[in-house]
Amino acid sequence: MLVHSVYFWLKPELAPGQRAHFRSEVGKLAAIRSIEEIHVGAPATVPERGVTDRTFDVALTILFRDGPAHDAYQVDPIHLAFVEGNREAWLRVQVYDSEG
Predict the structure, then answer these.
(1) What share of the chain in percent tops pLDDT 90?
(2) What is the CATH number of the domain that holds 35?
(3) Is 14 a member of any domain?
(4) I need a labelling partner for 59 at 20 to 30 A (CA). Which of 7, 29, 30, 77 fits?
(5) What is the CA radius of gyration of the chain?
(6) Could you give the angle at the alpha carbon of 22 between the alpha carbons of 33 and 63, nearest 5°?
(7) Is 48 within a domain?
(8) Residue 99 resides in a domain
(9) First vs last Cα of the chain: how many Å apart?
(10) In angstroms, what CA-CA distances link 76 with 11, 21, 42, 83, 94?
């Protein structure tokens, strides 16, 4: 199993409607066939601890069967269209990939 975790920091000037649109665009990635599971969320409202980072706006977690499934996702036309059509909305993106 490969876990692909992506955190987006959106541009502060985006209006609430633009932020909602971005989140809905992230959800469209679920149509990619190599994805086993997908979760889209926001920072959780749990008690803050010294190791907690809630500075991001949108979190994306995708589970893939294996590395080749992840690689297929990276070049899938849906993913490429998402990046091209939405890159102007984010200030920063951070990706963490792990296997387990």
Answers:
(1) 92
(2) 3.30.70.100
(3) yes
(4) 77
(5) 14
(6) 35
(7) no
(8) no
(9) 6
(10) 26, 21, 25, 11, 20
**30, 25, 46, 44: which is closest to 89 by C-alpha?**
25
pLDDT at residue 82, rounded to an integer? 98
Q: Please give the tally of structural domains in the chain.
A: 1
Given this model, what pLDDT does residue 25 score?
A: 98
Q: Which residues pair with 63 in a beta bridge?
A: 3, 37
> How would you list the strands of the sheet with 58-64, edge to edge?
35-41, 58-64, 2-10, 90-99
Cβ count near 96 (within 10 Å): 10
* pLDDT of 48: 86
**Its pTM surpasses 0.85:** yes
Q: What residues form DSSP beta bridges with 10?
A: 90
Which amino acid would we find at residue 84? E
Q: What is the mean pLDDT of residues 1-23?
A: 98
Residue 26 has which token pair?
């992230």
What is the helix (H) or strand (E) element at residue 22, kind and residue range?
helix 16-27
53, two tokens: 């980072």
| Domain boundaries, position 87 | 2-43+55-94
